[in-house]
């Protein structure tokens, strides 16, 4: 099947996965495809910047990028609305503004829902850094903080069982590690560290269950040096004004509680019957829906994505785009899906730890490198994203990794 001007492509969600797809499909198919990008937001949110907003007080506007000019540059139409119902048989999407879109290919890239309500008391006493509402709210709370016990951690997320994924109790713990280290740094700077304790809880067997023993060892060393207590196998259920409650009934005093809530599938996926029992979209390793062959999912909404990481969203978007481009034009190769955990945990000041691990998926790479070069790499990455209007720089990541890892004798990862 050749791409024709009638090939209608609809992308639902302009986050990491959606924008990567937009750029990839535009590059390969323009002018033979009519691409529509749909998102209820006017701006795409660079979530990895939220810890900087919450902890360092950076302006939230720095991490919002308007979607209209991004779509214009890719010769796509942008519609600011939410997808409310997808009919895979009629191949239509009903939007919150009353429009109905017809598609030949549909890409589900609407991310997930953060279920703050699942933790009793969160709205009154809890804080988070997960989005552009919660991160500035946490920043305001920190400005008033005068010391005391701080409890922070990630809630348990439950996954569906339609596709095979490694066991993981949490959706994404990296940002919590970042916030923990940044908090320690800031409290020391403000002379409040002696008046404050920091306790990091995890529902998993260990903090960052998705990496191997080498990374754990390095992280534990850093947390011990910084006097951070780690509580394992603890699932938060409630937050009160001065304590938190875990599922086993134990409580812990807390003057400031910061959480990443459980993740849930988006309602449009549930209503449309396209998800597994938890509302995540089951696909094969080309990101194609298990039942509907012209629907693809990439990023957090895909049931395969464990943990929920932007890095995996990009890998999946590349695979989904390559699959459709091959189908339409019979050109290009479809990369194999080889997931890996990759993140750079900023720690405040000029320090950061780069983490790269695939042990959870049966690989042997398990690296944590701490230092200024990891921080420089994160800074370059953020700047590139900002100045290129939502382009993620895989080549830059590769170049950065080579410069950081050049002296280490490891198998070089595919990025
Ligand atoms: C605080 C924080 C820090 C993080 N740091 C890192 C990091 O350092 N490195 C890393 O790799 N990952 C990081 N992550 C994870 C990363 O941000 C996510 O994995 C990534 O954003 C997922 O991309 P996505 O495109 O699937 O979803 P998103 O980026 O969430 O984008 C989804 C888009 O879909 C839109 N949408 C929602 N509902 C609808 C609808 N019904 N119709 C149409 N559109 C809809 C949303 O408005 C949004 O624009 C972090 C996450 C958080 C919360």
Automatic annotation (TrEMBL):
The record ties this protein, via InterPro entries, to: FAD/NAD-bd_sf, FAD/NAD-binding_dom, SQRD
Q: Which residues form the FAD/NAD(P)-binding domain?
A: 8-315
Q: What is this protein called?
A: FAD/NAD(P)-binding domain-containing protein
At the highest ranks, the source species' classification is: Bacteria, Bacillati, Bacillota, Clostridia, Eubacteriales
């Amino acid at each position: 099947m050749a791409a024709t001007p009638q090939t209608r492509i609809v992308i639902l969600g302009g986050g990491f996965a959606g924008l990567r797809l937009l750029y990839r499909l535009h590059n390969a198919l323009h002018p033979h495809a009519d691409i529509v990008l749909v998102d209820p937001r006017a701006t795409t949110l660079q979530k990895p910047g939220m810890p900087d907003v919450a902890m360092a007080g950076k302006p939230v506007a720095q991490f919002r990028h308007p979607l209209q000019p991004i779509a214009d540059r890719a010769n796509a139409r942008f519609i600011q609305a939410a997808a409310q119902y997808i009919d895979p048989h009629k191949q239509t999407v009903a939007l919150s503004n009353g429009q109905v879109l017809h598609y030949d290919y549909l890409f589900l890239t609407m991310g997930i829902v953060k279920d703050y309500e699942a933790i009793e008391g969160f709205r009154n006493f809890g804080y988070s850094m997960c989005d552009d509402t919660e991160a500035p709210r946490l920043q305001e709370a920190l400005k008033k903080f005068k010391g005391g016990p701080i409890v922070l951690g990630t809630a348990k997320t439950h996954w569906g069982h339609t596709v095979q994924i490694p066991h993981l109790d949490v959706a994404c713990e990296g940002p919590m590690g970042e916030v923990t280290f940044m908090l320690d740094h800031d409290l020391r700077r403000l002379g409040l560290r002696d008046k404050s304790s920091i306790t990091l809880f995890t529902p998993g067997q260990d903090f960052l269950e998705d990496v191997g023993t080498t990374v754990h060892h390095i992280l534990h060393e850093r947390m011990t040096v910084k006097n951070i207590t780690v509580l394992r196998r603890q699932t938060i259920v409630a937050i009160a004004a001065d304590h938190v409650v875990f599922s086993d009934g134990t409580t812990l005093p807390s003057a400031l509680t910061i959480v990443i809530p459980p993740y849930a599938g988006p309602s449009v996926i549930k209503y449309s019957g396209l998800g597994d029992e938890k509302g995540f979209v089951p696909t094969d390793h080309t990101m194609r829906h298990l039942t509907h062959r012209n629907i693809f999912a990439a990023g957090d909404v895909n049931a395969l994505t464990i943990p929920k990481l932007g890095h995996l969203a990009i890998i999946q978007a590349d695979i989904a785009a390559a699959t459709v481009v091959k189908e339409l034009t019979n050109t290009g190769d479809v990369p194999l899906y080889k997931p890996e955990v990759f993140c750079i945990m900023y720690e405040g000041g000029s320090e950061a730890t780069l983490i790269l691990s695939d042990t959870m998926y049966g690989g042997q790479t398990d690296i944590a490198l701490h230092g200024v070069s990891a921080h420089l790499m994160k800074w370059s990455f953020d700047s590139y994203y900002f100045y290129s209007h939502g382009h993620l720089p895989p080549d830059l990541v590769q170049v950065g990794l080579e410069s950081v890892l050049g002296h280490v004798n490891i198998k070089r990862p595919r990025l």
